[in-house]
Amino acid sequence: MFRVGNGIDFHKLIHEPFRPLMLAGVEVPSEYALLGHSDADVLLHAVADAILGALSLGDIGQHYPDNDASIKNISSSIIVRKCLSLAKEKGWSLVNVDCTYVGDLPKINPIRAQLISSLAAILYLPEDCVSIKATTSEGMGALGRSEGVMVMATALLEKSKN
Ligand SMILES: [Zn+2]
């Protein structure tokens, strides 16, 4: 038995050399950063929402409201791991994830292998079950003007054997 979920997330890009730009749990060298209440890891947020979606457990904003001071600057890997434990409690385990990053800044092609390795470790998955693709909006709209980035993610869950 399988269940699929999708997630989508946007974060605004700001010129902030002293705030780390986090993607898939990796601190990406950049003079820009993503704005958000947590560490603003847009890729992990999309993955968390995809897992919650497969479980029909609402969305990340319900579990981690952005007015909750206790989670300010929280590492988003903690959020994703929490979603995985919710899945486990209900008898589901993650099979694979597929993510699509849309943005011009930062370019992720040069660091894609590093992002996949980090995401696989956070998800306890082999690297060949973790996909991160990248595209641009061809200069159109806010993403094309590098005002922010977007990530879409799909997660497949399988009913655990035991
Ligand atoms: Zn987010």
TrEMBL record:
Q: How is the cofactor bound?
A: Binds 1 divalent metal cation per subunit.
The UniProt record lists the keyword Metal-binding: yes
Q: Could you tell me the superkingdom of the organism this chain comes from?
A: Bacteria
Keyword Ubl conjugation carried by entry: no
Q: Which residues bind a divalent metal cation?
A: D9, H11, H45
Pathway(s) where this gene product acts: Isoprenoid biosynthesis; isopentenyl diphosphate biosynthesis via DXP pathway; isopentenyl diphosphate from 1-deoxy-D-xylulose 5-phosphate: step 4/6
- Which residues does the annotation list for site: Transition state stabilizer? H37, T136
Top-level EC class: lyase
Give the InterPro entries listed for this entry.
Answer: MECDP_synthase (IPR003526), MECDP_synthase_CS (IPR020555), MECDP_synthase_sf (IPR036571)
PROSITE patterns, per database record: ISPF
Q: Which residues bind 4-CDP-2-C-methyl-D-erythritol 2-phosphate?
A: D9, F10, H11, H37, S38, D59, I60, G61, T135, T136, S137, E138, R145
Q: Which reaction does it catalyse?
A: 4-CDP-2-C-methyl-D-erythritol 2-phosphate = 2-C-methyl-D-erythritol 2,4-cyclic diphosphate + CMP
Task: Report the residue ranges that make up the 2-C-methyl-D-erythritol 2,4-cyclodiphosphate synthase domain in this protein.
Answer: 2-157
Keyword list (alphabetical) reads: Isoprene biosynthesis, Lyase, Metal-binding
Question: According to the UniProt entry, what is the EC number of this protein?
Answer: 4.6.1.12
Its GO biological process terms? isopentenyl diphosphate biosynthetic process, methylerythritol 4-phosphate pathway; terpenoid biosynthetic process
Cofactor requirement: a divalent metal cation
Which PANTHER family does UniProt cross-reference here?
Answer: 2-C-METHYL-D-ERYTHRITOL 2,4-CYCLODIPHOSPHATE SYNTHASE, CHLOROPLASTIC
Tell me, what does this protein do in biology? Answer: Involved in the biosynthesis of isopentenyl diphosphate (IPP) and dimethylallyl diphosphate (DMAPP), two major building blocks of isoprenoid compounds. Catalyzes the conversion of 4-diphosphocytidyl-2-C-methyl-D-erythritol 2-phosphate (CDP-ME2P) to 2-C-methyl-D-erythritol 2,4-cyclodiphosphate (ME-CPP) with a corresponding release of cytidine 5-monophosphate (CMP).
Task: Describe the subunit structure.
Answer: Homotrimer.
**Record-linked HAMAP family:** IspF (MF_00107)
The record's comment on protein family reads: Belongs to the IspF family.
In its UniProt entry, what is this protein called? 2-C-methyl-D-erythritol 2,4-cyclodiphosphate synthase
Q: Which source organism does the UniProt entry give?
A: Leptospira idonii
Encoding gene per record: ispF
